[in-house]
Amino acid sequence: MTPAAKVVICNRCNKQYSVAKYAAIIRCTECKVIIPGPASVELGHQIRHALSKTKSTLHQSFGNGGKLLKRMHSSSTNVSSLDTKPPYAAGNSGEAHGMKRALLCGVTYRDKTYSLKGTVNDVKRMKVLLMQRFGYRRDCIRILTEETGSESDFSPTKKNIQESLKWLVEGSESGDSLVFYFSGHGLRQPDFNDDEKDGFDETICPVDFMQEGMILDNEINSTIVRPLKKGITLHAIVDACHSGTVLDLEDIWIDNKPPSKADKSTSGGLAICLSACGDDEMASDTSAFTGKDMTGAMTFILIHVVENVPEITYGSLLDQMHEVIEQVNYKRCLTVPCLRILLGHRKIENPMLSSSQEFPVYSKKFLL
Predict the structure, then answer these.
(1) What kind and span of H or E run contains 352?
(2) Contact partners, residue 230, CB within 8 Å, separation at least 6
(3) Which of 28, 76, 114, 192 has its CA 20 to 30 A from that of 124?
(4) d(Cα 217, Cα 245) in Å, to the nearest integer?
(5) Do 303 and 129 contact (CB within 8 A), yes or no?
(6) E strand or H helix at 34, and its extent?
(7) H-helix or E-strand spanning residue 299
(8) 181 closest CA partner among 233, 228, 131, 142
């Protein structure tokens, strides 16, 4: 390999390629997947670095208004510390059936130009919600964050997330309730299986995605959606960019069935996904709601609405989340001329709802 060359890895077959540092994309000779080249990756770094500077300016501009929101919604920011070690070793299926089990992943990408500041806070808030509002036991929640150290089995690496996704559904039976939560970066790449109408697969990015690759929606679907048997309910809450169909579930408003006719449904169970934005949109983390701590916009609003509105349905939850986001966008942010120029009219995107069952889910009671 010449000094100017870079190594890229196919995230499907793990084959390594030595390419010029100015290469934008290459195609894997084994599985024909398009792989982002060093030039594309570097451009992504520069964009995320620029966005992080924009967010910092935005956070400073909110001033005392965010502190007022924090006082008003103090119950939503009651955060306990993370366990240093989640309860189950890889391969242990946990408790008997009728159980509640959750996998919570928060990826900070520490010391990277594209690092995030609110993901661990998101995981802490979600853990509190599951335990206090929905009765999840502490020993039935597995947490993957960088707080455990890069060599830990509970660092959010690609391998650990993949194994934990298998753990989440392993041995599940009718009556079980499962939750997958992810806060971190999401990306997309060209689809060559003809199962995406928009031509792109959606992905989540583990902490080591630059070395090991991303986790594709196809893999997430086959791991935690397809195995769901009748009577099992899975909730996926994904606070990341490009996350609208990251489980490859059907969108309840548009026809996004795979052109290839591939079966993406469950094995009789119910899968519901709340995602931060559409497949072609970008989500954001912000301190606008707390005045201090960074948090994913979708995560904070979801938790606030659920904690303050008992017996809420999925449809009402989504409507109220949209309303809060529109208030933030138009009353607190985009009415300030300098911010309109700075952000180019970008807004916090509205969350999306998708499900393995279509419209009936929209009117059901929200229950994790």
Answers:
(1) strand 352-355
(2) 174, 267, 268, 269
(3) 114
(4) 8
(5) yes
(6) strand 34-36
(7) helix 297-308
(8) 142
* 5, β-bridge pairs: 20
Return the active site residues. 185, 241
Q: Is the pTM of this model over 0.85?
A: no
Alpha-carbon distance 190 to 123, whole Å? 30
Q: Is the pLDDT of residue 210 over 60?
A: yes
Q: What's CA 47's distance to the chain center, in Å? A: 20
Average the pLDDT over 132-148 and give the result. Answer: 93
Is 150 buried (19+), middle (13-18) or exposed (0-12) by CB count in 10 A?
exposed
Q: Give me the half-sphere count of Cα atoms (radius 13 Å) on the Cβ side of residue 246.
A: 34
Which amino acid type is present at position 168?
Answer: L
- The amino acid occupying position 308 is N
Q: Which residues, in sequence order, are bridge partners of residue 35?
A: 26
* Number of other CB atoms surrounding residue 8 within 10 Å: 23
* Residue 224 scores a pLDDT above 50: yes
- Separation CA 295–CA 292 (nearest Å): 9
Q: What is the dihedral of CA 65, 242, 22, 194, to 10 degrees?
A: -170
Burial class (CB in 10 A: 0-12, 13-18, 19+), 115: middle
Question: How many Cβ atoms from other residues are within 10 Å of residue 327's Cβ?
Answer: 11
Question: Using CA atoms, how far apart are residues 76 and 55, in angstroms rounded to an integer?
Answer: 22
Give the model confidence (pLDDT) of 81-97 as tens digits.
344 333 333 333 444 45
- CB pairs under 8 A, 24+ apart, for 309-312? 311/365, 312/365, 312/366
User: Token pair of 251, please?
Assistant: 């969108």
